[in-house]
């Protein structure tokens, strides 16, 4: 799909800049130039498409659908809605509180809180562009499974008392809000949202690709394969522990996933690293600490962490 750009970028780097092909600097610069444009094009195209489809949904409709649903079916619906709602782990928290105000069970709200950062459109778009539809489909399936089971388990524990701030339930039933927009209005709104997201994440992409380019050009493949590759049992937990202190989105982490896998790290370990960054970040824990007791946060992180470890081991085993 991007073979033409790889050839153009190679000409620009090796002929235009005069860098030697196969040299560390040359390969690093070529990777940076090639991957930056490739990822930008993927992001703009797929975020626009998802944003256009999202104009047919709204958060009020999400809450209406979830209100009154049984636990397991509600967990499934909440996890699915996490895919189509534009929230990272931190920005999903206000909607999480809104769900509780709507008397949606805690377990269902946690299914949404888990799914939103794991299965966001950026992660899906970049996975599809870098690894194809099969890996993307498996990732989405496991991400949904973690969100559904995690929310279901939290719901069964009956931990509402560990919500630290008062959440006043809304009186009466929610009514679905119907929004009628002309197609051109939907296209314009999708484009405005796409530009807004691009402005917010383009720097993360540059940083992520820059780090990836350095690893690609200067870190030997056998070094990564020795310490983080192969089927060593500690590779997945190590990847998760390395990801937790970081705070980024999928756009910033995915270039590293691409490079690490090309250098010998198994895909499951690399994806566990990405999932830990997007769903188990320390900034998220700090925000959650303002509204949830540390026991509930610990249970939440424990369940999600276990799910991420499981995803890593399963991916490493089957791919």
Discrete helix count: 15
The percentage of residues in β strands lies in under 5%
What count of structural domains?
A: 1
Shape type? globular
The low-confidence parts are: 170-175
Give Rg in angstroms.
Answer: 21 Å
Mean pLDDT: 76
Structural class: mainly alpha
Order of helices and strands: HHHHHHHHHHHHHHH
> What is the first-to-last residue Cα distance?
23 Å
* Largest β sheet strand count, sense and barrel closure: none
**Would you report the number of β strands?**
0
- Roughly what percent helix? over 70%
Q: How would you characterize the overall build of this protein?
A:
The chain is mostly helical and 319 residues long. The chain has one domain (3-167, 180-318). 74% of the residues lie in helices and 0% in strands. It contains 15 helices and no strands. It has helices at residues 3-16, 24-54, 59-66, 71-84, 93-101, 106-118, 121-131, 133-156, 183-218, 221-228, 235-243, 250-262, 267-279, 282-288, 294-318. α1 runs antiparallel to α2. The longest helix is centred in the middle third of the chain and has 36 residues, at 183-218. The radius of gyration is 21 Å and the shape is globular. 41% of the residues are buried. The model is unreliable at 170-175 (pLDDT under 50).
């Amino acid at each position: 799909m991007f073979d033409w750009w790889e050839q153009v970028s190679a000409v620009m780097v090796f002929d235009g800049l005069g860098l030697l092909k196969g040299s560390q600097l040359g390969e690093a610069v070529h990777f940076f130039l090639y991957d930056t444009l490739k990822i930008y094009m993927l992001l703009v195209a797929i975020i626009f498409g998802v944003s256009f489809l999202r104009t047919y949904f709204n958060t009020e409709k999400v809450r209406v659908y979830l209100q009154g649903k049984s636990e397991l079916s509600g967990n499934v619906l909440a996890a699915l809605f996490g895919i189509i709602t534009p929230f990272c782990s931190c920005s999903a928290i206000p909607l999480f509180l809104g769900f509780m105000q709507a008397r949606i069970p805690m377990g269902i709200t946690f299914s949404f809180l888990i799914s939103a950062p794991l299965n966001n459109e950026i992660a899906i778009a970049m996975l599809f562009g870098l690894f194809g539809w099969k890996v993307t489909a498996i990732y989405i399936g496991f991400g949904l499974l973690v969100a559904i089971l995690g929310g279901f388990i939290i719901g069964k524990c009956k931990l509402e008392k560990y919500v630290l701030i008062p959440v006043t339930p809304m009186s009466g039933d929610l009514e679905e809000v119907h929004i009628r927009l002309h197609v051109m209005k939907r296209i314009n709104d999708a484009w405005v949202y796409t530009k807004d997201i691009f402005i917010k994440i383009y720097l993360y992409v540059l940083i992520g690709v820059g780090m990836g380019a350095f690893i690609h050009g200067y870190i030997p493949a056998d070094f990564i394969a020795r310490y983080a590759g192969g089927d060593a049992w500690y590779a997945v937990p190590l990847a998760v522990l390395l990801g937790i202190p970081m705070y980024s989105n999928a756009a910033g982490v995915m270039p590293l996933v691409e490079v690490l896998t090309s250098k010998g790290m198994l895909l499951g370990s690399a994806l566990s690293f990405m999932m830990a960054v997007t769903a188990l970040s320390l900034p998220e824990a700090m925000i959650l600490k303002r509204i949830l007791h540390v026991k509930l946060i610990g249970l939440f992180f424990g369940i999600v962490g276990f799910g991420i470890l499981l995803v890593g081991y399963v991916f490493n085993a089957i791919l």
